[in-house]
Structure formats: C-alpha cells, structure tokens
C-alpha cells in the first residue's frame, strides 16, 4: 500500500469516528460517499464535464478503462428517490444528508448504440469508488442524457477532497476517451434517430460497392479517387513535402445521375475513415460535424444537396446563416487535417460563389453528367444483374437519350415485374417484349411526372 492510500485510509477512519459523534451516519448513501473519500460532505469538491448525448457509450467505455487502470475500491451504486432528473449530484447528496429524501439505491442503466447493429449497456445514473492517478480516493459519477426532462447532455462528475485531485482523474478519463473512441471509423448521420434512443447521431452501415458498379464517363472516377483516396493514401508524404491534406470536392450534375451513388462508393473505398453525413434539415449541425471530423480524422464530411443552404445571393436579398456556418466550418479545419468535405448539388450554377470558387474550400468540382449511349448500356447491364437479360439493348439505348441512371434502374425493375406477371413460376427473364413494354409505359405522356422525379430530361 502506498503512502497516499495509507493516508486516505487513516483519514477515513478519523472521519468515521467524527461522524459517529456528530450523528452524520444517518444516511447510508452519505456514508458510502464520505467513507470512501475520508472527508465530510462539506469538504467534497466536484469537477464536472459535459458531453453531447451521443457520447454516452464513449464515457462508459473510458470510465471502464479508468477502473481497469486504477482499480475499483467501492462497487457501483445508485441513488434512489424522486425528482432525480431535476437535481444535480451534489444537490441530491446535500438533500439526502439534511432531509433523507434520497438514499442508497441500485444503479440505473440504459442501452446505447455503438454501431449500426450493435449496442451496449451504459450507466444512466451511478457512482463508483476508485483512486486518482496520484493514489487519492475519488468517486466517478456517470449521468446519461434525459432529453424529455431537459437534460440534453451526458455528464461525468468526479468527487474528491480537492479540485486538483478531481481534475487529474477527469483529465485521465478524457485521454482514455480519445484512445478508445467508439465513433472513430464509423459512418455517422446527424439528425433525429430512431436507433436505440440515440436522438441526434445515427450509425449507418458502410456501403460496399465495386468500381464496376459506378458507371461514369472515362476518367471521371479516376479524378475523384485521386482527390480523395489518393490524398488519404499518401498523406504523410504530402505533408512532408509541404502540401495540405484538407480538401473540398463538389460533385454536380442533374438529379439521378449518380452523385450519391459515387459518394457511397467512396465510403466503401475508405474503410478506416470516419464519415459524417449531413442532408436536409441536418445541415444545421455542420459545425458539430466539422468538430467531429477534426477529432476523428481521417474523415469525410458529406453534405448532400448543399445548394439548399448556399444559394447565390443574387436570387434574393437574404443569405441563409447556414452558409456562413458552413464556410466557417470549412475554414476552421486546418490544412494539415486529413478531412475531406464532399459536397453534392443538382444546381451548381446557383451556388454561392464564395463556396464554389474560393480556394481552400472547394478545390475540385466534378460534373456527373447524364449517361451517354455507352453509359446507358452499361447501366442497363449493371441493373440486370441477378436476372436473365435476353433483350436486344441497342433499340432501348437509342430511345433513351437524356435519361438518368435512376431511370435505367427503374426501367429494369418494371421489366422484371412484367416478366414475373407473365411467368410467375419461372426465373426472371427479361426479353424484348418486357423491356419494350416497360419503356413504352415510362415514356407515356401520363408518366411525365415520374420521369421528372427520376431526373430524366428525355422527351416522351
């Protein structure tokens, strides 16, 4: 036993004797706290650190790692009593000492996501006794978020007999969070999530697409990969040569041409990279996304349909504040950070020039155009995988100029449904009859809205 631990044990003995005389032993909860710390509650210092609610599993993992390092002197225990969601920890302890409203109880647990298909148990409200890095007794208290009661953040509280001791333990927990970060290497999406109660950050499965599943004009995919995967692969040598790593890539083109599909392909090609996705109303979290990207690099921040927040000022007198938030977020990431901002838009001409043209924000813009004849044939063959295609594709390719990849995909599905309706007991065989019938249906005047929704500019 070290001298610090011996001194702590002696202090606990003295405090227990003094408490017996002063009548402070009336609460088992208070006794559990003060007995370990070796000091009356009035001498206890609390150091607090708050995190976003999606960090709950990270807090639990780092506390577990801390206990593995420094040992568990007092097993996990909880606090029983009403109105716990409205009181801070030291307030509950003070009330327990004076009024007996709170007492020793069981630990509260919750389930929190740690991946697209996995979850773990985490302490929702509980305390555990351990030692500071210097050997002094401390208590770690974990408190999960409870949005329905106004608690939007998770909290770690360290109880000790001095601020220095408590801060030392808290700092070590924070360093362990960096070492054991569960978000690193994940695909994450901001927004309202239904995934196991995680309300602002969702874990998504990483797409796995092969290069032959991305149909683009010659050289386009090579340029995109060189600007993303190439920089990631040669990052150290680029930095050594005085080159920056942060990059901005804009994919633009008509709806349905494959911009999102290309983004999904890149996610699969960067299996160890953290991906943070923002789309729609989730754009308001761009500052948080950039902060996560810096912390979890190498990383990619995906902003889909970025024109929704970066429309050119000439279209009206008002400029959306989110545009400035986005620009500030991109500027705030240092050039040596291995972070990619990957933007997509259907209306590149409407983008704010400060975003599209300013060096250091977007340094490569790549058009994803409507497929040419060779591309349309490649798309039809791609989407025909899994069925038997006997149709002559030449007439269909000639009749579909101006259509998108989405149109080609839906065409094969409709042709497959026609084949199933005609031969429900046989394998799916798409011949000339089914493919021609499906094309006539989609090119009919009554399908104009459908064609528009699929991004097609082809006439009927």
TrEMBL record:
The keyword GTP-binding does not apply. GO terms for molecular function: ATP binding; ATP hydrolysis activity. InterPro entries: 26S_Proteasome_ATPase (IPR050221), AAA+_ATPase (IPR003593), ATPase_AAA_core (IPR003959), P-loop_NTPase (IPR027417). It comes from the Bacteria. Signal peptide: none annotated. SUPFAM superfamilies: P-loop containing nucleoside triphosphate hydrolases. Keywords: ATP-binding, Nucleotide-binding. The keyword Nucleotide-binding applies. Residues 245-372 form the AAA+ ATPase domain. It holds the Pfam family AAA. Belongs to the AAA ATPase family. This is ATP-binding protein. It comes from Amycolatopsis iheyensis.
């Amino acid at each position: 036993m070290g001298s610090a631990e011996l001194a702590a044990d002696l202090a606990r003995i003295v405090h227990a004797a003094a408490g017996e005389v002063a009548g402070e032993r009336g609460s088992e909860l208070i006794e559990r706290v003060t007995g370990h710390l070796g000091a009356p509650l009035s001498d206890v210092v609390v150091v607090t650190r708050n995190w976003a609610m999606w960090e709950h599993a990270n807090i639990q993992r780092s506390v577990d790692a801390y206990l593995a390092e420094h040992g568990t002197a007092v097993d996990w225990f909880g606090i029983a009593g009403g109105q716990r969601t409205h009181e801070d920890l030291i307030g509950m302890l003070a009330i327990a000492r004076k009024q007996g409203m709170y007492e020793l109880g069981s630990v509260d647990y919750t389930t929190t996501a740690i991946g697209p298909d996995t979850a773990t148990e985490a302490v929702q409200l509980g305390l555990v006794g351990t030692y500071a890095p210097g050997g002094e007794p401390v208590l770690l208290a974990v408190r999960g978020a409870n949005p329905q009661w106004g608690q939007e953040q998770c909290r770690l509280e360290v109880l000790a007999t001095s601020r220095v001791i408590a801060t030392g333990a808290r700092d070590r927990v924070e360093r362990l969070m960096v070492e054991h970060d569960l978000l690193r290497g994940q695909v994450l999406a901001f927004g309202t999530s239904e995934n196991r109660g995680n309300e602002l950050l969702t874990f998504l499965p990483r797409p796995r697409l092969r290069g032959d599943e991305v149909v683009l004009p010659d050289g386009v995919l090579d340029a995109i990969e060189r600007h993303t995967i190439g920089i990631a692969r040669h990052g150290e040598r680029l930095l050594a040569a005085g080159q920056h790593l942060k990059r901005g890539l804009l994919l633009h083109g008509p709806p349905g041409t494959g911009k999102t599909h290309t983004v999904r392909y890149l996610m699969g090609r960067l299996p160890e990279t953290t991906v943070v996705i923002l789309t729609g109303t989730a754009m308001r979290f761009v500052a948080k996304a950039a902060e996560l990207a810096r912390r979890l690099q190498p990383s990619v921040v995906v902003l889909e349909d970025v024109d929704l927040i970066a429309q050119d000022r000439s279209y009206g007198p008002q400029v959306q504040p989110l545009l400035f938030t986005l620009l500030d977020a991109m500027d705030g990431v240092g050039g040596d950070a291995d972070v990619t901002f990957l933007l997509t838009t259907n209306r590149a001409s409407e983008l704010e020039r400060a975003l599209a043209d300013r060096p250091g924000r977007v340094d490569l813009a790549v058009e994803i155009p409507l497929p040419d004849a060779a591309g349309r044939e490649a798309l039809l063959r791609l989407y025909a995988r899994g069925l038997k295609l006997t149709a002559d594709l030449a007439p269909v390719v000639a009749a579909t100029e101006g259509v998108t990849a989405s149109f080609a995909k839906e065409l094969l599905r409709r042709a497959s449904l026609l084949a199933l309706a005609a031969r429900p007991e046989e394998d799916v065989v798409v011949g000339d009859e089914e493919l021609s019938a499906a094309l006539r249906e989609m090119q009919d005047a009554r399908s104009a809205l459908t064609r528009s929704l699929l991004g097609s500019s082809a006439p009927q």
